Amino acid sequence: MTWMNGRSRLLKIALPVVSLLIGTPGWSSPLPVDSHSASDLNPAANELTLDRRQGIGIWGLRTDDREQGVEDKEQAIKVPPFASSPIAQATESRPEATQEESDRSSPVLEKWEQKIPNVLENIKRDPSFRTRARLGLSYFPSTFDSLGWNVGVEDIFLDRLGATGLTLSGDYQATFTGKRKAGGADLRYYLLPLGGYFNLAPVLGYRYLETPRYITDGLNVGFRVQAVLSRTGAADISLTQTWVAPQQSDEVGVTKLSFGVALIHNLRVSTDVEKQNSKQKKDTRYGISMEWML
Question: What is the CATH number of the domain that holds 191?
Fold first, then answer.
């Protein structure tokens, strides 16, 4: 009997404890009134939806603000329309030139329309040597080893179009003491095309010669042979043989060998050796000159 009473007392104590441990918690109830802990941990659906809508609204507002800001910046840096210059306005207002006007404004095209030129012939007529003005020093070993000077011009083309090879040349030379003098002017007619590297020209002119032994002047006739080593006066060599007062008692033969080379585009240096052969005496002259090519 005592044992039964003890067991009933134990059951009375254990049942409430077990029911407390295995009983359904209040927060698991679907009704919000049972517990507020679930509501605290999990926000309600309507609150979540509201927060999302608010977030989307804020994002859309920010996007609109950014687009508006970009538009404001574009308006701020927008440059007013460029005012065209007077030259551009004149160009725009001027009507386009026709093909006929373009052809007429080009001398080359106009020339080709009239007649097709012979390019090879034009190259041959373009001189391979140039007009030169000369100034230099001379040495006369046969006249007491005297020093002197010389000046001259070579090959002035009388026909600028190059239709003929007729040129004019002239020179003057003397010692500083005046004991020896020479000068004259010549016409040369180049027989071969002027653009070639080799040419031959008869010479006709007048020359005056004065030395301590004799004085001669008169007609000067002869020939000139020229070899162009490089076109347009860059380098050439020439040999000229003439006779002053031919078939006369005081006839004098003059032989001149000259070589020239360009230093720059229009300036070159030349050297020459000249011999005068007469019945009285043989004279020699050496010269070095600076030549300006025209």
Answer: 2.40.160
